[in-house]
Amino acid sequence: MSTSILILLVLTSLGLFFGFVLAYSNKKFGIEVNPLIHIVEDVLPKGQCGACGYAGCMAYAEAVVLNADVPPNLCIPGKDPIAKMVAELTGKAAAAMEPQIAQVKCAGIHSKAAKSYQYNGVQDCTAANLLFGGPKDCKFGCLGLGTCVKNCPFDAMVMSADGLPIIDPDKCTACGKCVSVCPKQVINLMPVGAKVRVNCSSKDKGPVAKKACSIACIGCSLCMRQCPHGAIKMENNLAIVDSKICEAQCSDALCLTKCPTKAIRPFVTGIVPGTENEESVIAACAK
Fold first, then answer.
1. Which residues pair with 137 in a beta bridge?
2. What is the pLDDT of residues 110-125, one digit of tens each?
3. Partners of 220 in the β-ladder
């Protein structure tokens, strides 16, 4: 028998032997997976965004099936339809979910926001933020380098020519990924039915904020004083709107007409913040 044939027989025998060993081990020591886990995973949107608090859709599917304390409505991108399906599959009750959408709390486009220097580094907001807080005079504003856009798992954001991201209301699932990756924390989630929004995140005092950006909130409190429902309060020189109070009680948004810098505007989706026109103001006031 030639050496080559002998080597082939030995290798074949070893392959068969270890194959049988692995097959036996898999049968003897294998862990059975609840088939319901894969069924639940199949109905999830597969964005792997982590909004549920778990490391991907498979991890959440496993948790919601095996742990009685994990609710079926943690998949934010899936919203109510997915929550109801998961609830039906797992025999759990799903609380109603309020539809939300991402909002950019900055209207500091190139022509409105002053710059302290020209940034030519890595086109990433986190990297730019490491260099003196970024090139904008306003250290609270959007840096406009698209880190949120690159990290959106649903392609719901694009960068505008004005240097601010635009959110597509038809694609945004409110997963919160853009919120977590923004180093300036200028993105938050708002109820879809909100009436007004504050297009600013600056906590600087009025004169400093206005010098850095011509459409910044200057903390004048006019909007707060004009709101008869107490839906607006001032925190660190910045107007904060309670969208739930505003949506439920306001029928005449006087705050929109009184803001001297137009930092508080109607909540219009799918546009560059700060580009809301007068028609949208009138429409918002008429709600």
1. none
2. 999 999 999 999 999 9
3. none
